[in-house]
């Protein structure tokens, strides 16, 4: 639950910042934060591509992430769970937090049969990122967030 607590804390801070931005720059921010004139969209700040420094995740460069994020025992690169935690919370996770998240993901790892069938039917030469993109998109049919968003859930929930 530490992930949800940290994310909720960050969201509260970001929400306050968005309200200030909306008040100061009403016409421009209403387009971005108000759904872009009837188009569904999201504003995000998790990563930035700098032409000189490369990608930064929540302000950390790739070398900084490689140094600071938890690694598997004997591993040299950060675990994906650690980068996910950083993106969601804005904080470098502890090894315990990464271990908890890994177990949480394992509990939720089952795929709906239609996604498995789709993946099994892809051509063998289809690029792995294309397969991942298609699979994640197909998972939308099971998404509680997508269902609530389509029903017009309040921005404060």
TrEMBL record:
<dbReference type="InterPro" id="IPR036969">
    <property type="entry name" value="Citrate_synthase_sf"/>
</dbReference>
<protein>
    <submittedName>
        <fullName>Citrate synthase</fullName>
    </submittedName>
</protein>
<dbReference type="Pfam" id="PF00285">
    <property type="entry name" value="Citrate_synt"/>
</dbReference>
<dbReference type="GO" id="GO:0046912">
    <property type="term" value="F:acyltransferase activity, acyl groups converted into alkyl on transfer"/>
</dbReference>
<dbReference type="InterPro" id="IPR016142">
    <property type="entry name" value="Citrate_synth-like_lrg_a-sub"/>
</dbReference>
<comment type="pathway">
    <text>Carbohydrate metabolism; tricarboxylic acid cycle; isocitrate from oxaloacetate: step 1/2.</text>
</comment>
<dbReference type="InterPro" id="IPR002020">
    <property type="entry name" value="Citrate_synthase"/>
</dbReference>
């Amino acid at each position: 639950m530490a992930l949800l607590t940290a994310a909720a804390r960050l969201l509260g801070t970001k929400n306050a910042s968005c309200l200030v931005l909306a008040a100061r720059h009403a016409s421009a921010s209403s387009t971005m934060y108000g759904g872009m004139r009837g188009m569904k969209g999201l504003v995000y700040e998790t990563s930035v591509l700098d032409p000189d420094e490369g990608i930064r995740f929540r302000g950390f460069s790739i070398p900084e992430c490689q140094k600071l994020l938890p690694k598997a025992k004997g591993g040299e690169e950060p675990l994906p769970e650690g980068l996910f935690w950083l993106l969601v919370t804005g904080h470098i996770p502890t090894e315990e937090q990464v271990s908890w998240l890994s177990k949480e993901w394992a509990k939720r790892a089952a795929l709906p049969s239609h996604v498995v069938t789709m993946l099994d039917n892809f051509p063998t030469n289809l690029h792995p990122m294309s397969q991942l993109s298609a699979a994640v998109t197909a998972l939308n049919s099971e998404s509680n967030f997508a269902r609530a968003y389509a029903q017009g859930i309040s921005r404060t929930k």
